[in-house]
Amino acid sequence: MAQGHSHEGHSHDHGAGHVHGSTDKRRVLLAACLTGGFMIAEALGGWLTGSLALLADAGHMLTDSLALGLAWYAFHLGERPANSRLTYGFGRVKTLVAYTNGIAIFVVALWICYEAWQRFQAPPPILGGPMLVVAVLGLVVNIAGFLILHGGDRDSLNMRGAILHVLGDLLGSVAAIAAALVILATGWTPIDPILSVLVAVLILTTAWRLMRDAAHVLLEGTPPHLDRDGMARDLVESVPGLREVHHMHVWSMDGSRTMATLHACLNEGIDAHGAVTAIKARLAAEHGIEHATVEPEYGHCADGDGDHDHHHGGSGHDHDHGDHHGHAHGALQGAPADRRHYH
């Protein structure tokens, strides 16, 4: 069942997605250099002016430059070919980095909230003029970084994480500019920590969405835009001689490359090779799944009537198959074909 696995998945990687990945890699590296370079200037500006908004943005830019560097390395690793131990290659490293970036953003945002509370209770003196100059320069740098990343692949979780970091910096610069203007006009320094918290809350909401989507990929959930049960019904209705589909699993490697495994129960006399070919063609043409592993069956399911999990629609993980694909992804969990149906 695992035959052809490396070949099919590999050919899929070298299409438009491969080109996108190389340009995304350059975009992320350039943004990392911009962010890291200005972070030093902003940290010095925040320390000299006494502005939490600038210090918070500089702290965020520090984590961002590290995160962007990590995102660049994830793209670099993702270009490595699959091997006998990592049969899917390194593509999922990008998803791990995206999840890690989400956690880092959470930590930074919580620190900003804590520091803002401390400063709100005892507002320190703030130099509004120099603060405004540094904040405006930061805004220019962050807009440049955002525009560089914005042209990348928006379906890539790794790129989404990188864009989120720079967007957080951009919002931080806007908040620092607004705080500086208020301080220059009225002298009311509490506006600095107040706007810092507002930016932190905005960052937290977007970070949560990134972590949720990355976790869904890591848990091998069905991509949100696909309906597994609807796909199974579509196959039965579209492929002649296909009686039912069961043990169907659909997951994404990195948020953009989707794979599937399934058992195809065929009527007696139906050519297995022809049916499998038709199923794969339908999945590719109608559902965007260009790599599918299909096990044709006649009569009872090959997994037999042993002590298997019958409670999760084919998603149990209680037993081991020799097939690497089934073992790694829970693709071939056992119940007879007539015990679980998706149509």
TrEMBL record:
Transmembrane found in the keyword field: yes
Localization per record: Membrane
Main location: membrane
The keyword Transmembrane helix belongs to this UniProt entry's keyword annotation: yes
Compositional bias annotation for Basic and acidic residues: 297-325
Keywords, sorted A to Z: Ion transport, Membrane, Transmembrane, Transmembrane helix, Transport, Zinc, Zinc transport
Gene3D superfamilies linked to this entry: Cation efflux protein transmembrane domain
TM annotation in the entry: 28-48, 54-75, 96-117, 129-150, 162-188, 194-211
Region (Disordered) location: 1-20, 297-343
PANTHER family attached to this UniProt entry: CATION EFFLUX PROTEIN/ ZINC TRANSPORTER, RE54080P-RELATED
Entry similarity comment: Belongs to the cation diffusion facilitator (CDF) transporter (TC 2.A.4) family. SLC30A subfamily.
NCBIfam families listed in its UniProt record: CDF (TIGR01297)
Name the UniProt record assigns to this protein: Cation transporter
Species name: Ollibium composti
Species lineage: Bacteria, Pseudomonadati, Pseudomonadota, Alphaproteobacteria, Hyphomicrobiales
